[in-house]
# Entry
Amino acid sequence: MNERVARHKTAMSRAALSRPVATAIRDSIVTEKTSFFDYGCGRGDDLRNLAALGYTVDGWDPTHRSSASRRRADVVNLGYVVNVIEDPQERADTLREAWQLANSVLVVSARLAWDARGLSGRPMGDGLVTRNGTFQKFFDQAELGRWIQDQLESEVYAAAPGIYYAFKEATDAQSFIANRVHTYRPRLRIDPHEMYEMHAAVLEPFLAFMKLHGRAPKGGELADESVSAIKEAVGSLGRSHQLIRKVTDDDYWDRVAVQRRSELLVYIALSRFSGRPRFNRLGPTLTADIRTHFGKYRDACTQADRMLVACGDPAIVLVNARTSRVGKQTPSALYIHKSALGELPPILQVYEGCARALSGTVEHANVIKLSVTEPQVSYLTYPDFDHDAHPTLASSVIVNLRRLSVDWRDYRRASNPPLLHRKEEFLGADDPRRTLYSRLTAAEQRAGLYAHPESIGSLLGWTQAVQAAQVKINGHRLFRL
Ligand SMILES: C[S@@+](CC[C@H](N)C(=O)[O-])C[C@H]1O[C@@H](n2cnc3c(N)ncnc32)[C@H](O)[C@@H]1O
# Structure
């Protein structure tokens, strides 16, 4: 027990039955036929009053009746005990100990948040220490039910505000529900969506991990403080996973798994270039990912090697480029913004990865051209891609996979450099810039700027088209002159 709180002072004397005991009698939970044990009975007023009414009773309290033994009984009452225990672990243990003694029903009551109104005290843990030195944790009704349910892993039933019943047998729970037609209170169903909303912020790192890896994180894969916060809020990592799966679409997770599988294949395929590591050298997260999505590393390596072979086949590259959901299609190539590379079909990601293995990362390159007529990947730099509606090419690095050559071309002093329009086509499917760029493209189309596609691919042709259409482009907006 914490030295700073005075639990012994929490027990009050009362002449009448306590509310939970009276409620249990009203609901026929406590009858003359049932044995009753008051766990944490305080000064024993309920015991005395019940005995006087002819009930079979006994009780124990660590302060006021410590020499009594803790016995099993049909009904065990844990009346306003859990709210005076400041240590959450001890609080949960006490609940479970009382549950162990119940043959049939445990009646749990605690003070509710509204009891705290007007009460002043010093905050401590999840409650406060009142003026007379006692600790009080004030629950919300639903929070109390959820906590009992989680600790006992058994359904609980709200008997009254601040009072819950937990039954050992489902049949007893059913007869309780059936018997209280006149005093019906709806069964507490904890809606997983509500539960998720309540703990969304705490669960965020867990969810982010799942989105990235297509599986639930293991203990060491999240920061310690996140794990503690999650355990406190939801109970365990396993429960967090179940909760997230309940409130999200299976379909979404199937797609994440497919995506993660291809990322791993691309990684494993490209790891050939630096000498593919043995499985036990991959690190715990990567090995867990591979186990989850492939089972065996060997199978993943075989599939990855097939991809490497496939991306050397021009017909396969062509089919993959033409069926790509992202990127700008031209007769000889597929162009894509670097932010959308992860959305390319895996074969094309390996194709691009092979080129990068040769050239290294081309700094500042933001558009990648995947040729479909020869094994060639070009890394194009458009320094003003974001700000200029029609950025011009500054330089390109061309990697030829047949010749194993890397060339560089500089357009910065060119009088008529290549220029981009329809920028949205280079971006990923969910890229937020698409809306702005598409709106401009639609306006340009209406203004007739794309009437002669053969001449607008470079700066001079485009400038002439803009002048001829008597329009002006400012930022990403078109104005008629
Ligand atoms: C607010 S009183 C309630 C007494 C009684 N059940 C009632 O309803 O009048 C809280 C009681 O919980 C007892 N208590 C404190 N820690 C306990 C624990 N770990 N196990 C059982 N009882 C405990 C205290 O001794 C105190 O008598």
User: Anything to note?
Assistant: The domain at 7-189 is CATH 3.40.50 (Rossmann fold). Residues 7-8, 10-11, 18, 39-42, 61-64, 79-81, 84-85, 90, 94 surround S-adenosylmethionine (CB under 6 Å).
